[in-house]
Amino acid sequence: VQLQASGGGLVQTGGSLRLSCVASGFAFSQYRMYWLRQAPGKGLDRVSTISPGGGTTLYTDSVEGRFTISRNNTKNTLYLQMNNPEPEDTALYYCARDEAGSLRGQGTLVTVSS
Fold first, then answer.
1. Which of 36, 51, 63, 86 could form a disulfide with 67 if both were Cys (CB 3.0 to 4.6 A apart)?
2. Is the pLDDT reported for residue 105 higher than 90?
């Protein structure tokens, strides 16, 4: 299993950022996928979940209405569109095949400045 996340960087509040994650080594289209994040000095938290076909999505309350998870199964790619990020969204973001994050990529750093 390989999960390669990218797209992180420095963004201001009110801006937007799109994270991508290319998956390989498994049947991507058959798995529920997750975006997780770890803020400085804190544990790993679930941000969003998407069903194998993309028809069902879930968000943690703090990002509901601002972030959008999506996937392209023909490209084996998972996305997270981050709109109106807040400083509290600053974290290392991971895509993962399981909610606990035991199967996750190397992460991409998002820093939100006010």
1. 63
2. no
